[in-house]
Amino acid sequence: MSEYGQGRGHGHGDDERTFEALPPAHGGGFTRTWWGRAWLKALEDTALDGQQLKAGRRHARAGAVGAVSVRPGRITAVVKDHDGTAYRGDVLVREFSEEQWERLLDLAVDSAGHIAALLDREMPPHLVEDAAAAGLDLLPGIGDLDAECGCEAWDHCPHTAALCYQVARLLDEDPFVLLLMRGRGERTLLEQLQARSTARAAAPSARGGAQTGDAPGGGPGEAGGMPGVSAEEAFAAGFLVPPLPAPPVAPAVPGRPPSLDTDTPPEPGVDPAALEFLAADAAARAHRLLGELTGGGGAAAPGGAGLSRPPRLTVAQDAVRLSAGAPAPSIAARLAGGSGRSRAELEPATRAWRFGGAAALAVLDEEWTPDAEALERAAVRLAEAWAEDDRPALRRAGGARWTAVGADAQLRLGEDGRWWPYVKAGVRWSPAGPPDRDPAAALATAFAAGAGEAGAPGPGAIGADG
What we know:
The protein is α+β, with helices and mostly antiparallel strands. 41% of the residues lie in helices and 12% in strands. Strands 1-2-3-4-5-6 form a six-stranded antiparallel beta sheet. Strands 9-10-11-12-13 form a five-stranded antiparallel beta sheet. A two-stranded antiparallel ribbon has the order 7-8.
């Protein structure tokens, strides 16, 4: 849509549209569509003085035409002369009668292509031809454009000619402008087309009644005893459904929740700071979801999982998730209680969540024991991860955990086959980074996180049990 197309027209109801003044037209013709050229031909065939048309074309090119108002039977604009004098110009177009509109509506719903073209802002040639065959001239002909101007010219003057040239530009973008001149606004016209098309689809008798076939359940016109609907009519009715609006554009950042810090004391048991924190968390999650839905590439959940199908969390898991949002100390204390952990225990749980969400939390909290086959695969994977002279000494610390001998570093195998790096902080093991399919890469992450606290282990064998 161009800068002066449909979006620039605003109405005072469905029976009037006003288009803002168009910018000057530099070079080229005023119209690029066949119906726009037909409009200008009607002007040129109507005007008696070719010099007046040339002057009007110069006015239009210079941007001397103001806002254009389109109503049934009339178009209006204020046009300025070179000396700045302004004149109101009107061009009158014959309106269709009610009976003529009935005939045109019948022609339109007879062809899905007619309706599709109109909705695509095109004037279908076949509709114009069919209408002409039925005695309806959609496009103006010789003598159909009558002029009225404040300069008191008795024929087309430079002001009304300039108005017609500008209207040709509007018609290029939206043929409904022409239909409004003939007496029907776009909304009214589409509603009438939809009602007529729906009525035809619901009344097969209008096409000669439902057809029955020899096959059980009815033939092409009848299925299981139910009346059929013409595919052509159903297709045409589908074009009357307005297009979907453009997807919303996700804001750059989540919205900020309102402050609940007011002079009015909160109700007993209500913590305004906690409510603000929860609101901010909800806004951030909604922002990520909106980014995904609108193709904005919303942020992924921890561990690489998208937010389209968030996992159902327990109360304890959700408390850990919320604690990963760096809440204030008072809120963190409440979340620790909700997670069933002490403040000290909540810290490694929060780290785990940031590295991989619920899956990482399960590796921290739950010790699973692989079966014999899984243990054998893990041993092979560990043996192949390093060259023999670089292989660290690992001892199995129960379940699916292997600790590096001589270092506070550990590998934990998740049930999905990924290796998680851990380091020892005080008396607790804490996650050191995201998981990896390569145990060597995961252990390197653990060594890097624990650098300065323990030296790297020397080469040695991988033990089966510690």
